[in-house]
């Protein structure tokens, strides 16, 4: 990146100047309602042009050596570091997450870290048979063009999760960001494209029709999608005609089981952040917590103490660590589910009473106790700052409740005895089960869901394999 390019991105406004379209769709700050900018509304014709650019670039990109592509990823990481602060400020304004805590600066930093990690993995040729008569090896070749459809909750970071392994494996990419958070991803891609050759990384910002066209396009070899199970089903159906490969990270309703040997005070803050990271707007957040009778009241009290100490407000205020819900539709889902829990007789420990005169989509951090295991707040994914805490009598009951839903992204077990926790973890139906933490994704460790939470693995060497075509040469 040249010094002139660095200077071009020293503020949010300069970033926006590079991506805004005055004739496009208005994007507002979910914390204040303030107009940020107008985002371009690309059409299916624009998508066709983007896919063609990716097709035209794929042979040259695939022809680079693995080391050359690794070096590109490292340069991309360095470039993000250079403009990290304006990227974080734009993300905070558009998505709503605070700059601090596990917020906007954390997300932008994670983008650079993920690129570096993806560049570090070794994926060598594998000798399958070599017995003097037969010699067979397995390699992974580029797929071609990958379509990356991202969400609004972690728009920059999840986009990097999609494009980093795709680029590393020799594919070109067409990105489709969420309609709620297009500016952040447009700015990120614009910055990355100061480093990448033309046509390797492309972006189209538009409505669901553009995303649907991406899913059926005959020149797209694979779709990577993070979002709702309902939309994931549509992508599966749409992809059938072209037999696309898919990696789908869909909805979750992660269970956490606390065992009776823990110190509630010692785990309270980690449990809190497992549930309320990104104001609860995380697919792999802890969304239903099962606590034994023996320590139930102490756990509820310890969590309430932590929750009430966490400041929520406008993301650009350096003191805040929780922000608004990103959009009105999600706010309404959370508000309706909490109200239904109240009406059922569940106890609101803290929160549950939003300030109707406050601008923005703020819903207070809410803990709901003494709630039935089949309450809608428990069995539906709330995707916001409300945690139901369900009492159980024995661990068999907790395991049965945890496994009762048709989702299985993540889960967690909390215990002073790691061996005991692992025994419980092995019985939980989830793609990842954490011990004494929740939602701690790691670029080195494969991640993916089961049941209605999708299929396919991301991250690590397995994630690289998912972005390639396995080829066996035998002779």
TrEMBL record:
<dbReference type="InterPro" id="IPR015590">
    <property type="entry name" value="Aldehyde_DH_dom"/>
</dbReference>
<dbReference type="InterPro" id="IPR016161">
    <property type="entry name" value="Ald_DH/histidinol_DH"/>
</dbReference>
<comment type="similarity">
    <text>Belongs to the aldehyde dehydrogenase family.</text>
</comment>
<dbReference type="Pfam" id="PF00171">
    <property type="entry name" value="Aldedh"/>
</dbReference>
<dbReference type="InterPro" id="IPR044086">
    <property type="entry name" value="LUC3-like"/>
</dbReference>
<feature type="domain" description="Aldehyde dehydrogenase">
    <location>
        <begin position="26"/>
        <end position="466"/>
    </location>
</feature>
<dbReference type="InterPro" id="IPR029510">
    <property type="entry name" value="Ald_DH_CS_GLU"/>
</dbReference>
<dbReference type="InterPro" id="IPR016160">
    <property type="entry name" value="Ald_DH_CS_CYS"/>
</dbReference>
<keyword id="KW-0560">Oxidoreductase</keyword>
<protein>
    <submittedName>
        <fullName>Aldehyde dehydrogenase family protein</fullName>
    </submittedName>
</protein>
<dbReference type="InterPro" id="IPR016162">
    <property type="entry name" value="Ald_DH_N"/>
</dbReference>
<dbReference type="InterPro" id="IPR016163">
    <property type="entry name" value="Ald_DH_C"/>
</dbReference>
<feature type="active site">
    <location>
        <position position="249"/>
    </location>
</feature>
<dbReference type="GO" id="GO:0016620">
    <property type="term" value="F:oxidoreductase activity, acting on the aldehyde or oxo group of donors, NAD or NADP as acceptor"/>
</dbReference>
